[in-house]
Every structure is written in C-alpha cells, then in structure tokens.
Design brief:
The chain has 466 residues and is mainly alpha-helical. A two-stranded antiparallel ribbon has the order 1-2. The protein is globular.
C-alpha cells in the first residue's frame, strides 16, 4: 500500500481511530494486524519471510538472555539467518550470473521477486539482537511487542531503521490523543506528499526518458536529467521519510528524522552524514567503529571507509553499478578528508555556496551509476556529457510526458521553493504552531499544489526496491 494513494488515506484514518478507541490490551494486536494488511498490498506471501525474521531474532534474544555462555553462537546464528535471507532473495542471482559469465558455468537462477523493503526490516531486526547481545537493551519477552517492532507499518518498507531503545518502549507507553500531534503529523505528511507527488513523480518521466536511451538527447537535456534525478531521489526518499514520521506522530510515536537538508551540505562527508541518517548510524555503530573507525591510523581508517561504502553500495542493490557508486563515494570522501587540512577555510558566503555547488555536482554525477540499470546506460549518459553538442535544448516529450518551458519553469520554482523552506527550518518544520496564520497558509498552499499539480499514477517509492 502506497502512502501516496487514496487507499492508504482510508486505511490510515481507520487505524488511527481504532488506535485511540480500542482498549489498551487490544491496541498492539490491532497494530500488528494493520501492519500485515498494509504489507499484503504488495506481495502477501512474503509475510512469511517477515515472520521467519521475527521468530529467529525473538528466540535469539531470549536465548542470549537465558544462556549467556552461548550468546556469541546465538548472535552469529541470528546474523547468518538474516544475511542468508538477504543473500537468497537479493544477491544469489547476481553472484550466479557473475560466476556464469566469468567461469562459463551454467548454474540456474532463482528468478525470485525481491520482497519490498527486505533490507530495512532485516537490518532493524538485527540491531535488536546486537543490542541485546552487548547488554545495551534488555531482552523483549513479549513476542507481540517485538513483532510490532519489526512490522510497524509507517517505517516497515523504507525506514527509518530504528534502534530498539527508541521504538520498543514507545509501544508500551500510555496513549494520549493530542491535536498537537495530529497537526504536526499532518503537516509533515503534506510536506512529504508535496515532495513526492509534485516534484519527484513529475520529474521522474524526464529522468526515465533520459536514462532509457541518453544517446537520443542533447547534452543539455542529459545534464538536466542527471540534475533532476538527484532532486528526484531526494524528494522521493525524504518525502517518504517525512510521511512516515508524520504518520507515526499522529499515533504519538516519534521516529527519527532520516534527512537533515543533505543537498545543502558543503562537502560529501557532511552530505552523507545528513542523508539516510538511520542507515549511516547503523553502519557507523555496527561496522565502522567495531573495525577500529579512525582510531588505528589513516590507513586502517581509509580501508574502513571504503569497506563501509562498498557494503552500502551492495546494500542498495545487487549490481556492479551499485558497487561502483559506493566505491566512488568512499574515494571522494577520502580525498576530501586528506586534502581538507590544506584547504583555505573561510566563512564567506561565496566559499560556502561554491562548496554546496561542487558537492551537489559531484554527488549528481556519482548518482548516474545508482540510477542506471546497467553499466551500458551509465556509459551512454557520460558519453553525452563528455561530448557536448552545440544545441541548448531542455524541453521535449520524455517517457510520454510533455515538458514545455512553462512546465520546466514550474518544476524549477517548486524545487527552489522546497530548498528555501528547508534552508530556513529544521526537519520537523517546527517553526510553525497550530495557531499561526503562517501554518494555515502553508498547509492550504501544500494541499492546493498537491491536489492540482500532483502526479498520482501510483508510482512506487524508489527505496521500496531495497
């Protein structure tokens, strides 16, 4: 079920009413059922995978608490189980295809469809077991609450990846209906839906057309497509995250903000610390720091950074394009860390804006590998960029969607407006209050823009595929 659908709006209203009207002992089972219904709108059979993850990690946690002498073995079994599921559904065919191409073997492929959001809920479930193993969180003996921790529908399929310390205790606290929570949550939902429906989905047709066959288009059009994809993936993913936080806020449950204005960062290190923050913290806590982080010298630190970004690339997808994307990000961050001490540091606005522009351009070019379905597509895009034609054309019909000059002007206005809002305020948009005339005008403006200019063709969120 998509957040940007009328089915979800009806579903959400019903669940919200039940959440505050049902007796306390019925709320947790109701939320589990609601989360299962939400997931069944994708591929119902894959609920079995979720239940396998839940059972394995629930009993692993119980075993770690009850049999401390075997806790390392139980932790390894839990991690291997989660990674094994990921490997079968996400990576098996990639490794088999690669092996067949390199070695001339003819091993068969599974050709299975990747379960929606598999990487998210396996990582979240693993974080619980790791925290219990290290004694940083007490074992959860109620399988219902643990199931809800893994299944909780606002962040089930695309995060944020929550640690048990933040999410599990909130399921057990007293419920208090609050108009303030409803208004704050609704504002975030509208803001996320604006970024998704008005910006991301509108420019997706342009991006799809360019990346389908870049050789058909002028260099200026390809460059705009590359720029648009960086905006698209940001608005698509941060839009989902804003809606997830807003939906959860209506229940009185606080999720972490997954983005903190990353495209306004002045260097790549800062950008990736502010983009998909929950995954960044997961890798930092469970991989980078245990490997020594930056405490064992520059060489080990460099290896750790490259390894984390390579794993991040693989986490996003099984393909050489994702591996290259992760590797290039790691390399450019290392270059920045190495040369940063020798760079002139100034607080002058021109220096800052130059850093933002350079960072955005770099990440946009690296994102070409992320968006391309294969290396041939990426090559076609870079070929057009590196061999510019003399024509400056931006408009045209892309993926059966017409982009006239007025449409492009509207899109650019919306993008600039979004950055202006996000530059001035923190992620919760907390500068508003429910009594403010500015809040009312802001929300009415968003509703009108979404209703009259939003694209509602039930396009999946990009990160559902991960």
């Amino acid at each position: 079920m998509l957040f940007n659908s009328f089915e979800f709006l009806l579903f959400f209203i019903i669940v919200l009413i039940l959440y505050f009207r049902l007796p306390k002992n019925a709320v947790m089972p109701m939320m589990i059922v609601a989360s299962c219904v939400f997931y069944c709108f994708f591929i119902p059979a894959y609920l079995i995978i979720l239940f396998v993850v839940i059972l394995v990690d629930y009993f692993s946690g119980i075993g770690i608490d009850k049999y401390p002498a075997y806790k390392k073995l139980l932790l390894i079994m839990s991690i291997c189980s989660n990674l094994g599921i990921l490997f079968v559904f996400k990576y098996y065919d990639f490794f088999i295809k690669t092996s067949n191409d390199l070695l001339g073997t003819e091993w068969g492929l599974l050709n299975v469809i990747l379960p929606i959001g598999l990487s998210f809920h396996t990582f979240q479930s693993m974080s619980y077991v790791i925290e219990v193993y290290h004694g940083r969180y007490p074992v959860e003996k109620n399988i219902g609450y643990f199931s809800l921790y893994v299944l909780y529908f606002p962040q089930l399929v695309a995060g944020p990846i929550e640690c048990p310390q933040n999410l599990l205790p909130q399921f057990k606290k007293e419920r208090h209906f609050s108009w303030e929570n409803i208004l704050l949550g609704s504002r975030l939902i509208l803001w996320g839906l604006f970024k998704k429906a008005v910006i991301a989905d509108r420019i997706s047709f342009y991006v799809n057309g360019i990346f389908k066959d870049a050789s058909q288009y002028e260099t200026s059009q390809v460059a705009l497509g590359v720029f648009f994809f960086t905006i698209q993936i940001y608005c698509d993913f941060s839009g989902y995250s804003d809606m997830a936080v807003g939906i959860s806020k209506c229940f009185g449950i606080d999720l972490m903000f997954n983005f903190n204005r990353p495209l306004l960062a002045s260097n790549l290190k800062e950008l990736w610390a502010r983009w998909h923050i929950s995954l960044y913290l997961w890798f930092k806590k469970y991989i980078y720091i245990p490997l020594g982080g930056n405490k064992k010298g520059i060489f080990v630190m460099s290896l750790n950074i490259l390894l984390v970004f390579l794993i991040s690339g693989l986490w996003h997808g099984a393909g050489f394009n994702y591996i290259i994307w992760g590797f290039l990000n790691g390399v450019f961050i290392l270059l920045y860390l190495l040369i940063n001490p020798y760079l002139p540091h100034s607080k002058h606005p021109i220096v800052k804006y130059f850093g933002i522009l350079l960072t955005f351009t770099t990440v946009a070019l690296i994102f070409v590998f992320f968006r391309s379905e294969n290396l041939q597509q990426a090559k076609a895009v870079f070929t057009q960029l590196l061999h510019p034609s003399g024509k400056w054309i931006f408009s045209g019909t892309f993926d059966q969607f017409a982009y006239g000059n007025m449409n492009l002007l509207f899109i650019m206005t919306m993008i600039v407006g979004m950055f202006m809002v996000e530059r001035k305020v923190s992620p919760p948009l907390s500068f508003f209050t429910h009594k403010s005339w500015g809040d009312i005008l802001f929300c009415i403006g968003l509703i009108l823009l979404i209703f009259f200019t939003g694209i509602f063709t039930k396009q999946h969120f990009i990160y559902f595929q991960f």
